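Example record

One chain of 279 residues, shown exactly as stored in the release files.
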Amino acid sequence: MPRPPGARILATALSVCLVVAAPAGAAEPKVTPATMAGTRGTVQQAAKVELDAGNPATAADRLSTAARQLGDPVLFIDAAEAFYAQAEAERTTAPLDQADEHARIALDILYFLQGPMASKDWQPVDPMEIPGLVSRANDVLQRSQALRAEIEAEAAAPKTDEKKKGAAGPKVFIATGAALTALGAAGLGVGVAGLAIGAVQQDKADDPTIYGDAYDAVERKGKVGNALAYAGLIAGGLLAATGIALLVVGKKRAGKSDDRKARLRVLPAGAGIALSGRF
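Predicted structure tokens for this chain:
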């Protein structure tokens, strides 16, 4: 029976941790950014050949196998990007599951390398490169979320003849997309407000003059702020991504218009954001 994605991520992360945290007397070869770069380069070159030939699935499998063997966060990110390219080409969401998994494993390893348990004998990347690699992995996750919403919207779209549907079809997509995008913007606003509440309460918690019941009250408010931040940012991001995908699909299905391009702008508004557009 196949393990769920979460179990695979945990298993991979644990295996990497065991290698990194091996006792000093173990006969593990020392891994430095330079030695890993040489091994990684060979794998990346072979994968690039497949990508250039239009075979992202083969490239992704090659990068994934090497990443798991070496525990290299860079190869995990490379594999995530290749799986994303496969999903984009095939218009299916299954490769996006793999892309998300590999990106999250890369983040786990990168955060581990920044922690106190990291071994000086196992440093596959230069510490100065870690922030950039974290940004790459998070970018894959964000693009994967948007592409998944777009593909699912395409799959849910009716397959009937556009001529029989008339103008109602695209209008439904655009109206639904606008509504979901607005809800997403509101959710993001709640998330931003939660972050602000958490930051204020954290400052109060750091004040040495606050203790006892007052400190407990500050702690409770901080937890509320964190809960709002997590719920608002996650739900708002998902709703906004789905809404924007539906807007794009609706515009495509609308076909010819008055020769004007669809325009969508994101503007600051109060605690969150506002979106305006013309379709």
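Notes: Residues 1-11, 17-27, 256-262, 268-272 have pLDDT under 50 and may be disordered.
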